[in-house]
Specification:
- There is one protein chain.
- The chain is of the alpha+beta class and 133 residues long.
- It has one domain: 2-Layer Sandwich (Alpha-D-Glucose-1,6-Bisphosphate, Chain A, domain 4).
- 28% of the residues lie in helices and 34% in strands.
- The protein is built from two helices and six strands.
- It has a six-stranded antiparallel β-sheet with strand order 1-2-3-4-5-6.
- A hairpin with a 6-residue loop joins strand 2 and strand 3.
- Helix 1 crosses helix 2.
- It is globular and about 45 Å long.
- The two termini are 30 Å apart.
């Protein structure tokens, strides 16, 4: 990602705006403290799940689901590389009935969209901090 890890984590941990970078086929809403509800259409059956979200600011890590959750669970961690460069690591268990290929395509689309959001935020912040000429 073309930004500091903390800037990327600010975006991915903003639970009110997850849909800015998740694929269009996924709808997400907050339904309680650290609780999200997700709808994933297009599978054999509509998937509607609630998952607890845990945000670890020190490790720049978000986890959802639990040890006993067998679907729609995982973790996302932003890794510090260098100044203005970071990486995002994701472990994801997809919804019931989803193939590894479809989960991989969904994840690739989400990370591509996240990179676009990160770039737009980075450019906007640079424009605000540019001295007037």
């Amino acid at each position: 990602m073309p930004a500091d890890a903390e800037a990327v984590f600010d975006i991915v941990s903003d639970l009110d705006n997850l849909t800015t970078w998740l694929p269009d086929s996924v709808e997400v809403e907050l339904c309680g403290p650290r609780l999200i509800r997700m709808w994933m259409p297009g599978l054999r059956a509509e998937v509607d799940v609630e998952r607890q979200i845990r945000i670890d600011w020190e490790r720049l890590r978000i986890t959802w689901g639990s040890e006993t959750t067998t679907s729609c669970s995982g973790a996302l961690q932003v890794l510090r590389l260098t100044e203005n460069r970071s990486a995002v690591s994701v472990r994801l268990t997809g919804p019931p009935g989803s193939s590894t290929a479809s989960v991989g395509a969904w994840l690739e689309a989400a990370l591509d969209a996240l990179e676009r959001v990160v770039c737009a935020e980075h450019l906007a912040k640079r424009a605000v901090h540019q001295p007037a000429q």
